[in-house]
Structure formats: C-alpha cells, structure tokens
Write a structure and sequence with these properties.
The chain is an alpha+beta fold and 261 residues long. Bound molecules: hexanedioic acid and magnesium ion.
Length: 261
C-alpha cells in the first residue's frame, strides 16, 4: 500500500531523473516496504504523467524473460512495462548519447497486434492468432538507477528500464516462422557482441506475451489493436556509447540496426 503523497514524490523523482538524464539512488532505499503490486501502480502513474505531457501509447514491453536474468535477480517471474510514441527510434536517425544515461541494446522480436487481447486465461495460441506481423527489433534499455542496480520493485516502477526501441523494416506473418527456433547474432562495430535464439524468451516469445496478457488482465488491462509488443531479449544486453553502431540479424526476419552519435 503506497502512502498518499508518496506516489507523487516517487513519480516526480523518476520522471525528472529521465528528463535530466541522470542516474539516481533506487526508490527502495528510501521506501523498503513497497510491494511489486505497488510498483505496477507507480509505473501506471508514471506512464499517465508522460501521456499527459504528450506521449501516446505505442505498446507493451516484456522484461526479465530469460531464466538467466530471472536467476540473476532472484525472481521467477517476468515483468512488463509500456512503450510510448516518444520511445520510437529509427534506423536512419542516430541516437543521441547526450539524451541517454548508460544505455544498453537488447535484440528482440516485435509483435504487431491485429486485435485487442485481454483476459486472464490467454494462451500462446491465442496470442499468435491476434498477431498481424512479427519484426526484428532492438530495445534500448536505460535504467534510471545508479549502475543498473535495482530490485524487482525498483525496475517495475521505472517502467522496466525502457528508453527507446527500433523496429526493422521486414514484417513477416507469424505462421511463416517457428519463432522459438529463430537464431540471432548482434554485432557491435562490426564484431559479434552476442548471440541468442527465440527460445531464450520463456521458451517461445508468444508464451512470454501470453504471460504478460494474463498479468495485465489481473489489472483489467490488455493489449490493443495496433500495439507493438517487445517480447523480451534473445540474449544479454550490450552496453554502448557515442560512436558505436549495432546490427542484429535474425533468421528469417532480416536485420535491424542503429548508430549512436
Ligand atoms: O527489457 C528488459 O529485459 C529489461 C528489463 C529490466 C532489467 C534491466 O534493466 O536489465
Ligand atoms: Mg527488453
């Protein structure tokens, strides 16, 4: 339960850290009793603040979808956050390092939703029926917390470290691919930086999305037609700075790239 007034203080704290491009001490250092449910409520309020300042909903993102990352954080559950229109970046426009704190790149498979999807008993099959296209994507995560150190509560309140995302230009019907078997190689400045597969995302990206829809359903929320869903990283995240360039190449999905100035 969040004490009245504390929520606004925390939202101001996280909102200004992002706008002023500075890292801050994690929220739970000051408020150790916050629960994960409180954190989703704080995340909702943070998103509402951003939307009241002009950002529009673009979709949903999943995080902590690999067993390795869940084990690292000592949790056994993924997390979700929201994507907004001002997070959308493009292959042809350089990211500006001055607008980012300590960014990392994650290769992901994006879903474009053909219809709304809400419920608490949704399966991976239901998800795939509601997907119009899948595409290669890179998520830029940029935790507002010092050195990317946080608890589950902190990261959920911080909208799961979301910052930017880039979607490649090849859009494929989901039935044309076995998404669990997709291999991926991400290169940084021409050298292989990390490799992964669709199975790293909770066994199958659609399984991860079904989990997120059911979790959203408990809060009477869901996916909407036109949403982009970042289904979770196929590999570890790779840090970058000014001057770096990335290409992520996915079997059957083509590639997606960005550079940072
Ligand atoms: O998108 C992600 O998987 C990141 C979730 C938050 C954890 C992190 O910042 O590494
Ligand atoms: Mg991610």
């Amino acid at each position: 339960m969040i004490v009245k007034g504390t929520d606004i203080e925390i939202i101001d704290y996280l909102y200004s850290a992002e706008n002023e491009v500075r890292e801050v001490v994690k929220v739970t250092d000051r408020y150790p009793d916050l629960t994960v449910e409180d954190a989703y409520e704080l995340q909702k309020q943070l998103i509402e603040r951003k939307m009241s300042n002009g950002a529009k909903r673009a979709g949903v993102k999943l995080g902590l979808t690999s067993k390795a990352k869940q084990n690292m954080m000592g949790v056994n559950e993924a997390i979700y956050g929201y994507l907004l229109s001002n997070m959308l970046a493009f292959e042809w426009e350089q990211l500006d390092s001055k607008q980012l704190i300590h960014p990392k790149a994650e290769p992901e498979i994006a879903f474009l939703m053909a219809e709304d999807l809400q419920g608490t008993d949704i399966t991976a099959e239901d998800v795939l029926k509601a997907v119009q296209y899948v595409a290669p994507a890179i998520e830029i995560i940029d935790s507002r917390y010092l050195n990317f150190h946080f608890t589950l509560v902190d990261v959920v309140a911080d909208n799961c470290s979301s910052s930017r995302f880039i979607v490649g230009s090849k859009w494929v019907k989901p039935e044309q691919l076995d998404l669990a078997k997709i291999g991926m190689v991400m290169s940084k400045n021409g050298e292989v930086a990390t490799v992964g597969s669709g199975a790293a995302v909770l066994g199958h990206p659609a399984e991860a999305v079904a989990w997120a829809v059911n979790k959203l359903g408990q809060r009477q929320e869901g996916l909407k037609k036109g949403d982009i869903v970042l289904t979770g990283a196929l590999s570890e995240a790779v840090a970058f700075t000014e001057g770096d360039s990335f290409v992520a190449q996915f079997d059957g999905l083509g590639s997606v790239s960005f550079t940072c100035k």
